[in-house]
Amino acid sequence: MTSKVPRVPVVVGVVVAVGAVGIVVGLVWYVSRRKTEPADDDERQATEGQCTFPETVKVQQHAEEAVHLDGEQQRLAEFQEKQQRLADEAAARRRAVRTRLQHIGCRPDHTNIAVVGQSGSGKSTLVNSLCVLPRGLPGRAPVGNDEPAADISKYDCPLLPDTDILDVPGAGTDAQPTKGYFDRNCLDQMDIVVLCYSGSWTEASTAIVHGCEEHDVKLIIVRTKFEQSVKATFEGEDFTPEDLTGRALVVKAGMQQKLHEHLEAVGLEPRDLIVVEAQQFLTGARLPRAGGRTVVPDAETDSEEADRWPGDHCDQVLHNLMHDRYDGALLLEALVRN
């Protein structure tokens, strides 16, 4: 009789052998991975180590916040220092302005009107017209080839009570460069600024308009020597007074349009234009007297006639202003309306 070998122990042995082989293979794979990727594993452990210490993170945050706070405090201190410096400079300038205006003779209870513009724009002639100072009368503002004023000059205005007219040196010269012209001549302290120009619009004129807008100073723009410009358009041809009047309207409209274009090009508000021929205001320089005589105010005029002359002449100039063919009346009205 043949004996049978039991099968169960054999199967168990096979399973155990396979499991042992699997364990050996797994250990070999793990060891080989450790050898090929040590840097990545160490780096991961370092990162995991950092994340396990919240106190370290808080210390770093506090340090960053302290650095940020120090920077903010430094910027605040610099800002406060700058503000103080600007305030000191403004206070010093106000003191200097008050001293200069007192030196010029400006009166705080009077309306101060500054007549400004490019050198040669006819501003001094306008000053003489408003202050009734024709040729031959001492104390008039220098014009034309006369020696230009070195500083602001003050004149009384008999046409406008409680008003001082200030003839400001012309802009665009070595003594009065365009840069700083507005501040240098205390124009922000004026009640009215009358800006004169007679030819092309200039950079100095733009700076004055900008200064008036910035400091909220009333501005009147005057185109002087207007009749000369109108007559020049006839190019030597004969013309009647009616021709002159009709042409003047066209020329003024063109000047107004160009002024708007100049101002809008530099971001300034459009302004109305007043045109004058200042010489016309002084056509009453020879006034009729008793017996048909005329009196010309000069050094040879006797004292009695000289005393009578200014008041009569003011009336004549006022009449000329109000009946001028151009905008003399508008100019006077704009000055009075302040």
How would you summarize what this structure contains?
With 338 residues, the protein is an alpha/beta fold. The protein is built from ten helices and eight strands.
Fold blueprint:
Elements: H1 8-36, H2 38-51, H3 54-104, E1 111-117, H4 123-130, E2 153-156, E3 163-167, H5 181-184, E4 192-197, H6 203-215, E5 218-223, H7 226-232, H8 241-265, E6 273-275, E7 287-288, E8 294-295, H9 303-322, H10 328-336
Parallel strand pairs: 1-3, 1-4, 4-5, 5-6
Antiparallel strand pairs: 2-3, 7-8
Helix pairs in contact: 7-8
How would you describe this structure to a colleague?
This protein is an alpha/beta fold and 338 residues long. Helix content is 53%, strand content 10%. It contains 10 helices and 8 strands. It has helices spanning 8-36, 38-51, 54-104, 123-130, 181-184, 203-215, 226-232, 241-265, 303-322, 328-336, and strands spanning 111-117, 153-156, 163-167, 192-197, 218-223, 273-275, 287-288, 294-295. A 6-stranded mixed beta sheet has the order 2-3-1-4-5-6, sandwiched between helices. It has a two-stranded antiparallel sheet with strand order 7-8. Strand 4, helix 6 (203-215) and strand 5 form a beta-alpha-beta unit. Helix 7 (226-232) crosses helix 8.
